[in-house]
Design goal:
Number of helices: 10
Low-confidence stretches: none
Largest sheet: none
Structural class: mainly alpha
Oligomer: single chain
Number of strands: 0
Shape: globular
Radius of gyration: 19 Å
Order of helices and strands: HHHHHHHHHH
């Protein structure tokens, strides 16, 4: 149940199909084309829903948010407007929560979650989004605990689903209600995933980073 078993093919589908279109257009067309490729693979049976092909679009949303937020990007002007990115983020996550609660398939609410996160990141990068909730969100992202989590974010990316899946399976075996599973996820599973990922970082990732630093120093 390691997510890399699903995601490995994203790393070659995006460069092979999505990036060539992206470079000749813009982030919006690139994201749209990414989801088109994703759902075409689903429709033709190349992947089923367990393969989560819409991850191609989710990765593209992250790329688009990073590109728009980059001050050196030609699309950074999108952060210079007073477009309500935070409101859009809240609307998307609200729609995703509704679809989740009404037991719609993942391919319907996952893209909304991805769009919500992308909108939030763009909003935080905008100098015109000031005051109220957006300032509190920025302060949260800039807080020391989250900065420390950022140091082992790649290990968190690699390991989080392993831990979350264990707790999800426990919830099923214990016949917990959906609401109880959500509480267990937020209060127990997520902190456990962070702790496990930090230990993985110390044992597996950090030694290689040190080796790389020493190699660069010698060169």
């Amino acid at each position: 149940f390691w997510s890399l078993g699903i995601e490995w093919w994203v790393y070659w589908l995006i460069p092979l199909f999505v990036l060539p279109v992206w470079r000749r257009s813009n982030p919006f067309i690139g994201v749209g084309f990414a989801f088109l490729v994703a759902f075409c693979t689903l429709l033709v049976g190349l992947f089923d829903e367990n393969g989560c092909p819409w991850f191609i679009g989710l990765f593209a949303l992250g790329i688009a948010a990073a590109q728009i937020s980059n001050p050196r990007s030609q699309y950074h002007f999108l952060t210079q407007s007073k477009f309500p990115w935070l409101l859009l983020s809240l609307l998307l996550i609200g729609a995703a929560a509704y679809l989740f609660e009404t037991k719609h398939p993942e391919w319907m609410f996952d893209p909304l979650v991805g769009g919500s996160c992308a909108s939030l990141l763009i909003g935080c990068a905008s100098p015109y989004q000031k005051g109220g909730m957006i300032d509190r969100v920025r302060a949260l992202f800039e807080s020391q605990p989250l900065r420390q989590v950022g140091q082992f974010s790649y290990s968190l990316y690699l390991c989080h689903w392993i831990v979350l899946t264990v707790f999800l399976e426990w919830g099923v075996k214990l016949n917990l209600t959906l609401k109880s599973q959500l509480w267990m996820t937020f209060l127990v599973a997520v902190p456990s995933a962070v702790l496990f990922s930090y230990l993985f970082y110390q044992v597996a990732e950090r030694p290689f980073l040190r080796m790389r630093s020493k190699a660069l120093a010698r060169s």
